């Protein structure tokens, strides 16, 4: 009797001359049912993506699982025979010679093990904390660190970077490409600041991709000799991974206006005519460095009445016009460079209240000019001011 029909239905159909076919219900073993279910998942993937699942460490874990499963199915003649009626997309066309895996069961846990994946106790569709071999390797390389014996050399760099982040001279932005990984760059990975202290010779790996060995210093006093692509993978996999921008005031400024440029302000360097003993003894070294969006003449008008000008008249030593630039960031950048030489002086304002001006520095004018030129050519991030040598020195 056909499924869904009663004895009366069969009798009526017989009177109409319709032959009733009684189909035998096929009995499947649990293993065959599981193979069919697994192949149907592969079919759904191929239907959704328009292609068979593919191997590759950059692929989704489930796609990689399906790809391995499909290879195993193709390897087994019994599986091909079982699934041939379902294979409308021709996924079984590639049928390599049977291998030693013929006797293996198509168990998802076993397939995942072949992929180097740790399997959680939950069902496959609810896998949690599963990492591919490449991800584990990248994480291991980040975690495999040694004590940085010369960390004292790098500690001031991390402290300076934090100050620049706090002041807005630097920013954190999402990591985008390995081209950003260069010597002297800072990143945030696994919650720690990382500094690329050295980058070795570029090589080509087995996959034909370029790579290089790095010396990476971390702000907790450790270091790692890791590959550039390992750092790249760690940054890409870390939702909080970031690159730290170089200190910049914005677009470069020039001495000439180009079409479409708009004047943004002026850097001014002043020398005080104050009779304060500290200033009088270092007249040629004490300079005020500031940025204004008005004329310098207007800015210094009434200087003798303002504590910021040491309650004294001033002499204009140098000026530099700015175009299309963030004045505040530029001023912060210049003050950061000369922070080691900031003049500590207290002045009484006209009401007798003590004031400590913050824009005066004990630096020679040639050092200021050097800093301005390095800001122009974009190399300033590699220099700091050394009061002992009275000049800019390379941080490396």
UniProtKB/TrEMBL annotation:
<dbReference type="Pfam" id="PF13455">
    <property type="entry name" value="MUG113"/>
</dbReference>
<keyword id="KW-0614">Plasmid</keyword>
<feature type="domain" description="Bacteriophage T5 Orf172 DNA-binding">
    <location>
        <begin position="281"/>
        <end position="375"/>
    </location>
</feature>
<dbReference type="InterPro" id="IPR018306">
    <property type="entry name" value="Phage_T5_Orf172_DNA-bd"/>
</dbReference>
<protein>
    <submittedName>
        <fullName>Meiotically up-regulated gene 113</fullName>
    </submittedName>
</protein>
């Amino acid at each position: 009797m056909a499924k869904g029909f009663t004895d009366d239905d069969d009798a009526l159909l017989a009177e109409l001359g319709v032959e009733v076919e009684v189909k035998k219900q096929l009995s499947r073993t649990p293993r065959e049912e599981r193979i069919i279910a697994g192949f149907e998942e592969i079919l759904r993937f191929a239907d959704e993506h328009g292609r068979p699942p593919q191997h590759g460490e950059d692929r989704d874990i489930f796609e990689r699982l399906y790809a391995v499963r499909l290879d195993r199915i193709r390897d087994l003649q019994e599986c091909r025979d079982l699934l041939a009626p379902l294979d409308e997309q021709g996924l079984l066309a590639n049928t390599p010679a049977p291998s030693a895996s013929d006797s293996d069961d198509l168990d998802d846990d076993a397939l995942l093990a072949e992929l180097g994946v740790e399997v959680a106790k939950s069902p496959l569709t609810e896998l949690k904390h599963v990492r591919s071999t490449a991800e584990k390797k990248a994480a291991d390389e980040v975690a495999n660190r040694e004590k940085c014996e010369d960390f004292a050399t790098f500690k001031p760099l991390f402290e300076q970077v934090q100050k620049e982040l706090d002041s807005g001279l630097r920013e954190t932005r999402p990591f985008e490409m390995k081209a950003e990984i260069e010597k002297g760059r800072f990143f945030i990975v696994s919650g720690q600041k990382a500094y690329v202290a050295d980058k070795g010779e570029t090589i080509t790996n087995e996959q034909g991709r370029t790579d290089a060995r790095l010396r990476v210093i971390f702000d907790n006093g450790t270091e790692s000799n890791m590959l550039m692509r390992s750092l790249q993978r760690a940054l890409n996999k870390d939702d909080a991974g970031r690159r730290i921008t170089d200190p910049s005031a914005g677009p470069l400024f020039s001495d000439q206006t180009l079409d479409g440029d708009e004047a943004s302000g002026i850097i001014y360097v002043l020398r005080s005519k104050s009779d304060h003993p500290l200033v009088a003894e270092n007249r040629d070294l004490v300079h005020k460095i500031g940025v204004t969006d008005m004329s310098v003449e207007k800015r210094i008008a009434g200087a003798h009445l303002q504590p910021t000008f040491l309650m004294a008249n001033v002499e204009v030593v140098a000026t530099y016009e700015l175009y299309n630039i963030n004045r505040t960031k530029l001023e912060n950048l210049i003050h950061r460079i000369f922070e080691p030489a900031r003049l500590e002086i207290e002045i009484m304002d006209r009401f007798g209240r003590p004031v400590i001006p913050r824009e005066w520095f004990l630096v020679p004018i040639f050092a200021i000019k050097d800093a301005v030129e390095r800001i122009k050519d974009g190399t300033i991030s590699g220099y700091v001011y050394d009061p002992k040598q009275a000049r800019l020195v390379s941080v490396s």
